[in-house]
Amino acid sequence: MPTPTDRRPLRLPRRDDAAFVAEVLRRETVGGVLALLAAGCALVWANTAGDSYEALRRLQLGPLDLEHWAAEGALAVFFLVAGLELKRELVVGSLRRPADAAVPVAAAVGGVLVPAVVFVVVNLGSPDLRGWAIPSATDIAFALAVLAVVGSGLPQQLRAFLLTLAVVDDLVVVAIIAVFYSSSLHVGWLIVAVAALATYGLLQRWRLTSPWLLTPLVVLAWWATYAGGVHATVAGVVVGLLTRVATEQEDKLSPAERLEQALSPVSACVAVPLFALTSTGVPLGGLSLVSPVALGVVAGLVVGKPVGVLGGAWLAGRIGGRGPGLAWRDLVGLALLCGIGFTVALLVCDLSYDDARAAQAKSAVLVGSLLAALLGAVALRRRSRLRLG
Questions:
Q1: What is the pTM of this model?
Q2: What's phi and psi for 60, nearest 5 deg?
Q3: Domain 11-181+231-388: which topology?
Q4: Which residues of the chain have pLDDT under 50?
Q5: Crossing angle for the helix pair 292-299 and 98-122, nearest 10 degrees?
């Protein structure tokens, strides 16, 4: 007869996996708080001194203005760190074992697809369908921050599950951006980007890790990707995936671990807050949250995300079997928490619309993310209290 643990979809992580998740949790929690403060500052600024806020966003710094530096540059650092985390999980972490990876990966894919379907259903027959991917992304910094505040009595593997899900979610959304939201392509620049990335990968393979060699290649790949018409965050993910995780006998840390340690504070405490500051300043006067775009985004985040995450996890569990670890009731609050879109969702808003619909979509992202955070926090707090007795 099956025991209750047979209905738990994720195995316990190894001790070193748990230590890594705890370290990431501390960094992302701080970053989430800073990004929230930056978003609040942007909203107040845009609605009290809108002209000066727009002047800041349009401030020209070299070849790009501040808004584009934040979206194309700062977020490239954010996605580079996501790529490093994913590479680690694939090589030495939880994703290296297909049976363990199946459930969080399927949950991530379901959490991307179902919100998009919800948005399309709400906006069917309207000219607003270009924003279908807005509610598909999960913001790892905010989700981990909420989990850290309310989940003290919850098992450590719940955090590991969220980290794995969010990293895979980021990768899928970056692929969507590359395929569906790229501007007119310039083949010459894209060839340069591919050549720079290939050279970077070869140098990693040959154990040549001098920053004097690698940094110019990364910068060239980033700029060539942007100039080629593909969003520059794609270059960040690819660099992360190409960075070597294996260590030499004389090294305590691999190149990927060293790079992640160096860039994670920059990503969490500078890149994401800067993007939040330049992207969330939406004038709220006369803004409607009952437009099809806004309703589609809110419904996608609050309803589509948890349904997709739970549905994907359930389907993977049915197909691939279930190991001991998390109870399904633990995953309900986590699935609700995945509706926190914020960073990447705001990016897709800018890529989808260049008129009043962008402001509607951004406001809906903020409202939907807040609702998801509150619902997830209530569910996880209740579950934590039950576990603590």
A1: 0.81
A2: -85, 125
A3: Na+/H+ antiporter like fold (1.20.1530)
A4: 1-15, 25, 321-324
A5: 160
